[in-house]
Specification:
The complex is a heterotrimer. By secondary structure, chain A is an alpha+beta fold. Chain A has a single domain, classed as Sandwich (Jelly Rolls), CATH 2.60.120.10. In chain A, 35% of the residues lie in helices and 29% in strands. A four-stranded antiparallel β-sheet of chain A has the order 1-8-3-6. In chain A, strand 4 and strand 5 form a beta hairpin. The termini of chain A are far apart. In chain A, 28% of the residues are buried. Chain B is an alpha+beta fold. Chain B has two domains: 230 residues, no CATH class; 125 residues, no CATH class. By secondary structure, chain C is of the alpha/beta class. Chain C is built from six helices and 17 strands. In chain C, strand 13, helix 5 and strand 14 form a beta-alpha-beta unit. The chains are: A alpha+beta, B alpha+beta, C alpha/beta. At the B-C interface, strand 6, strand 7, strand 13, strand 14 and strand 15 of B face strand 2 and strand 16 of C.
Chain lengths: 153, 372, 289
């Protein structure tokens, strides 16, 4: 099995972090695996993790009683799943479901949260890394809302 | 060549007679509905002798002068374009046949025009038309055939109107090339005559048929002095220095909103402008559906549908349409055709019902230029 | 039947660019509920085939209804199959949708420039298509795949509205199964049993496998989608001069005479529809230009 530390260090998301911070993050990391259709987390649950996808695909879904599960975004290998752990009130906003057999690195958000409060430098570094992801998804959502390819006559 | 002769008023009539005998349709300035238009004339008497025009922003008036001068009026409301690039032309006819259709390409027998008294600004505009419709990858058949047959008798300007600024645009008041004959009207010491500069061999051949005398050095100098005086009396000026670059930097200038609020998007400026060339192509089907005519007609970038693409028009606001037009005249035309899209005739100023003045607008943008 | 290929069409004095020529519909393919592909051939008696470049367009004419520009979606190496894909949204395209094999349609063209596929030796080529924008890019895909060895990675990123709006489905599936091609299809809204990607195509731009320092990107789709895709390309480090996009403006004549399609100092019908991004980037941010 690959060393978690080297995987995290090589991932662009963690690039440039101080060794001591990487070390701490590695301490919060563990391997995770979800089978096809399994939920990584459910809307409303306490958000205590985030994930780095090593293999496989994860769908973010909203469930509607009439329409069933509506996929709003697909996340793929190399991407980060979940930021609710770092934003109060630390509750998942969507369901995240494994589309196929998915291997991920799970990071303990609760442990990181506490550490971030103690060490604002790490907190800032992590927020700096999450905010572009949040921004990108926000932009993507806005474009989605435009219904660009729709008929408009 | 550069050979100049002196012609009397009667000689001009002989010139017209000669042109008509060669089956030219002579087009010249004449008064119609209290304005000077450019249309067919039969004889010298059709010209607006003794009339002068007063042009200002949104103002056009004719008044009598008592002078025998033919060219105290400045340019006509419309330019020569009607004649060489008709406002409406049938390009093809199609008819239903069995399960399909056939197409017949329209070929016109091009009319043979002699453009009499065409002003230097309009002559410059013709050079721009030549560039657009003759010298690109594709040429326009109708324009080409009509243009090739055209005989041009230009009239240098000795009196600019209040909206003229050809001197700023380097397109007047003297015709420098592109004519067969260029006339300068002189009324001096009770004498009324014309100095004609011969610009082509066919013009020389024509001149040989009519009464004429060699122009004296004094006449030529006097004619030039009249033109030079006109150059100094331009009703408007436009500072063209670096203007293209300034305009490109000022697409987002808030001044466009100010002029956009005044602009009625009526398109008058595009209809009188001698460098505007936009057209649209429309198919007209008869009621039975068996015959179709494809007609090309003049269009204006001020029409909302002009920029329509599926889902809506690109330029819906009046500011955007005015900006597009002015940018085209003074900036983008340069990049498209290596020449300005404005000849300084001032028609757009005269005929704008809101008195919008291209020289004022361009200078306002320059003055309030966004610094980049 | 012997066929003549009209070369040097542009300088041929006999060719009047405004005259439409009757062609016969050889085949109609319904791609989706509102999009269809027409295969056209010259009508007997005018047996002329003209070469075209991927990315060019023709003016198609429905007798008695009107004429519109439609890009060519077929294979440039097979000019005898004149292929157009379009969506029934306006009066003319809705009428076109009723065309059947053997019917007549008017064709004139081709007009405009094409995708710059020469001199891309060894480069990664990323196609970014939104909605019907896949049609003109398909021609370029054919050409690239015909010379597959000349390029580095070839990636197709295609975003559309919902799974039922996916064009050229069979072809996409065939391409997807190739080992020398990365094809990603994403939908804005998932419906039914869709198991593929959900999200806008711009997200794919940020994560698809290509080397941004050695990539040429060809982008076609709605203007907003192109702007945001280009933003992602630039974020990844693709140089502006390696990004090409296909623009849309009103086109009436096709030869730069009617003035309708002006985009800043350019005419989309003859200077475009394909532009190098850095040549028009300043215009993309200006409203109503």
């Amino acid at each position: 099995m690959e060393n978690l530390e080297s995987i995290l260090k090589q991932h662009p998301f963690f690039e440039g972090l101080l060794d001591k911070h990487i070390e701490f993050i590695v301490g919060c990391a563990s391997n995770a695996r979800f089978k096809t259709g399994e939920f990584l987390f459910r809307e409303g649950q306490e958000a205590n993790h985030f994930y780095l996808i090593r293999e496989g695909t994860v769908n973010l879904e909203i469930y509607s009683p009439q329409k069933g599960a509506i996929t709003i975004q697909t996340l793929d290998e190399g991407e980060i799943v979940g930021w609710s752990w770092i934003i109060s009130p630390y509750q998942w906003r969507f369901d995240a479901r494994s589309v196929d057999m998915t291997r991920l690195i799970a990071l303990d958000g609760k442990c990181l949260r506490d550490k971030c409060n103690e060490d604002p430098e790490l907190g800032f570094e992590l927020l700096k890394r999450f905010s572009p992801i949040i921004e990108q998804r926000l932009v993507a959502t806005k474009i989605q809302l435009l219904d660009l390819y729709g008929k408009d006559d | 060549m550069a050979h100049q002769v002196r012609l009397t008023l009667d000689a001009l009539q002989s010139l017209i007679d000669e042109l008509q005998s060669r089956e030219y349709i002579v087009i010249g300035p004449k008064i119609e509905n209290r304005k000077v238009v450019y249309d067919e004339i039969a004889k010298i008497d059709d010209l607006p002798a003794g009339w002068s025009d007063e042009q200002e922003a949104a103002t056009y008036r004719l008044h009598k002068t008592g002078s025998p001068a033919l060219f105290d009026i400045t340019h006509s409301m419309n330019a020569w374009i009607h004649h060489l690039y008709p406002s409406k032309a049938t390009l093809l006819k199609a008819s239903r046949e069995n399960s399909g259709f056939t197409v017949e390409r329209m070929k016109e027998a091009p009319p043979k025009y002699a453009l009499f008294g065409i002003r230097p600004c309009d002559l410059e505009a013709m050079k721009k038309y030549d560039r657009i419709l003759l010298k690109d990858t594709f040429h326009d058949e109708i324009y080409k055939n009509r243009r090739e047959k055209t005989f041009i008798i230009s009239a240098n300007c000795t009196r600019p109107s209040g909206t003229c600024f050809c001197a700023s645009m380097d397109s007047g008041p003297k015709a420098t090339s592109g004519y067969d004959l260029a006339l300068t009207e002189i009324i001096r010491d009770g004498d009324h005559y014309f100095i004609a500069d011969i610009g082509s061999e066919s013009a020389q051949e024509l001149i040989n048929k009519i009464p004429q005398a060699e122009a004296s050095a004094d006449d030529i100098a006097y004619a030039n002095s009249l033109i030079e005086k006109a150059r100094e009396q331009m009703g408007r000026t436009l500072n063209t220095g670096n203007l293209k670059e300034i305009l490109y930097k000022n697409y987002e200038n808030t001044h466009w909103d100010t002029v956009g609020d005044r602009c009625l998007t009526c398109g008058n400026c595009t209809l009188v402008c001698p460098t505007c060339f936009c057209t649209t192509i429309q198919d007209y089907t008869d009621l039975t559906g068996s015959n179709v005519e494809r007609i090309r007609q003049w269009d204006s970038c001020y029409n909302n549908e002009f920029s329509y693409i599926h889902g809506g028009s690109v330029r819906t606001s009046s500011y955007a349409r005015y900006r597009h037009w002015l940018m085209h005249k003074l900036a983008t035309y340069h990049d498209q055709f290596d020449t300005s899209g404005c000849v300084g005739c001032g028609r757009c100023i005269t005929w704008c019902p809101a008195a919008i003045d291209i020289t004022e607008e361009a200078s306002a943008i320059r003055q309030h230029s966004i610094t980049v | 039947m012997e066929k003549t290929i009209e070369t040097n069409r542009k300088t041929n004095g006999q060719y009047d660019p405004l005259i439409t020529h009757p062609y016969t519909v050889k085949r109609v393919i319904n791609e989706t509920h509102d999009t269809f592909t027409l295969h056209l051939g010259p009508t007997n008696g005018r047996n002329t085939i003209f070469p075209f470049t991927a990315g060019q367009f023709n003016m198609l004419y429905m007798y008695g209804i009107g004429e519109i520009p439609i890009s060519i979606s077929g294979d440039p190496s097979k000019p005898e199959q004149l292929v157009h894909t379009t969506r029934a949204v306006g009066t003319v395209t809705k009428a076109m949708r009723g065309l059947k094999k053997g019917h007549s349609i008017g064709v004139r063209g081709p007009y405009g420039n094409g995708w710059p596929l020469d001199n891309l030796e060894g480069k990664d080529v990323v196609f970014i298509a939104g909605g019907i924008g896949l049609a003109p890019l398909r021609s370029a895909m054919y050409q690239v795949l015909a010379n597959r060895d000349s390029y580095g990675k070839v990636v197709l990123l295609y975003g559309t509205r919902t799974p039922i709006d996916i064009l050229f489905r069979k072809e996409l599936e065939r391409w997807k199964s190739r080992f020398d091609l990365d094809v990603y299809v994403t939908v804005d809204r998932a419906i039914g049993t869709w198991r593929g990607y959900v999200g806008v195509v711009t997200i794919l731009v940020s994560r698809a496998p290509y080397d941004p320092r050695n990539t040429v990107a060809l982008v076609c789709g709605p203007e907003v989608m192109m702007r945001f895709s280009i933003m992602e390309l630039k974020k990844r480090g693709v140089k502006s001069e390696h990004i090409y996009l296909s623009m849309e403006r009103n086109m009436k004549c096709g030869v730069g005479h009617c003035g309708h399609c002006q985009l800043g100092p350019t005419f989309v019908c003859k200077d475009g529809p394909v532009y190098r991004y850095d040549e028009i980037d300043y215009l993309l941010d200006i409203r109503e230009v």
